[in-house]
């Protein structure tokens, strides 16, 4: 390397210095991007876990609603049944909105 450096012109030395600087910059940029990727991967895993928990909660709540409706059908008059169905429909729409927000 020393012999080659000795025979290089100033232009070559300057080009080599610029090249080394650009390579160092690219390496630093690569390290930064790897760090961002790791952070985003961790955030994605956290969101996936949160989404899974929310879906489990929704399943449990839907089951509870179904059980409550089944229990009430036996002891409810027709007007109350209609109101119960409307309330349940509203709850289902709200749950669907929550799912849509989680999926964004």
Main β-sheet description:
none
Helix content: over 70%
Q: Helical element count?
A: 3
Shape: rod-shaped
Determine the strand fraction and express it as a percent band.
under 5%
Mean pLDDT: 84
Description:
With 104 residues, the protein is mainly α. The chain is 94% helix and 0% strand. The chain has helices at residues 2-7, 10-75, 78-103. Helix 2 packs antiparallel against helix 3 (78-103). The longest helix has 66 residues, at 10-75. 0% of the residues are buried.
What's this entry about, in short?
The protein is an all-alpha fold and about 100 residues long.
Show the helix and strand layout.
Elements: H1 2-7, H2 10-75, H3 78-103
Helix pairs in contact: 2-3
Labels describing this entry:
single chain, 104 residues, mainly alpha, 0% strand, 3 helices
